[in-house]
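Throughout our pipeline, every protein is held as a single compact record rather than as scattered files. Such a record has a labelled line for the sequence and another for the backbone structure tokens. This encoding replaces a full spatial description with a residue-level series of whole-number codes. For reference, a complete record is included directly beneath this paragraph.
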Amino acid sequence: MPPQSHWGRAPGPCPEHPDCAQSIISFHCCLCLCRADGSMGEVGPARAAPQHSLAHSDAVTAVAALKPDLCVSGARDKSLAVCSWRSGAVLQRFTGHQREVTKVTSAPDSSRVFSASRDKTAMMWELQGTPGPRQHFAAHDLVVTGLAVSPDASQLCTGSRDNTVCKWDTETGRCLRRAITRRNLVTHLCWVPGEPYVIQSSEDKTVRLWDLRQLEVAHGFPAKQHIQTCCDVSPDGRLCLSTSSGTAGEGCEATVRASPAVRAGQQRRQLPALWDLRQTRSHVCEYKGHFQTTTSGVFLPWGTTLAPSIATASLDSTVKVWDRDTTACLATLYLDGAGALSSLAACDSSTLLCATSSSGIHVLRLRASAEPVLEEVGVF
């Protein structure tokens, strides 16, 4: 049986806010509210979240939301787990990778789940199917670090530290195209909704837009000062988000930029030429407040009670929610004993899943009020 969650940190001050009077107490989290003016509102320790048996026996490296209330996760234990994030129950487990799982993803309303691994392969799995993989994708020479699937789950895009990006047919497992870009150590991939494009972040500090029809780089955003660790695209495809490495507060930011849009009726080989006119070509929003590498960032689905928002997670064990347009930090949650935070997934406009290195997957709830509060409501 996987080990139970453990929280062994001794009481002490919040590491993100040394001047915070709130003590971190074992089995609790410190909730701090960061206001737009930089001041910090303290709302006290969170109540202990329900604890379940952990879904994995080792560090969880990736998590993705499935509809309606399921998620899929991958871990250093080489397995994938499909769980109910409401109950924490493991409903299905997939095994087949020879080394750590690095990424997981799924297409909306699809019964297919995809994974990438340090064993240099990606795999496809069927929900309600056998524990083994339905399809293998093997063409990379190093760890697969990027994974994105088309909305109809018919095509897969993978990226690796070997400087390559590959396009696959998911039915046959055939590699349709393979592109090599010098110094492009891929860190993450994300499909642009409704378009044949993928956003890709890299260790070369850049973010690229790929046209998957011919597997060509359609656009390159200006390089940042630090490695770009993760990327995401807004639900309408207008904006892209990337996160940065860093230390001691230097770097560690998230960046939102306008995403190139495709003009209706363009020729097949023509590259995107139209930037969304509601943004300027140089429009950049930066979200600064983490003290170590920001490992993951996601756009939150639009809700009726909160302004458009993004969420970020960091090696400093904090999750932050930001106002997308003003860049104000709306809420911060420190996960005591969780270790490095590796991946975020948005289930709905108020529910986040956070994969951690030491304490499984945390279910977080954003409670809208005059001053929003981010709280932990479960761990599995």
Notes: The CA atoms of residues 343 and 355 lie 5 Å apart.
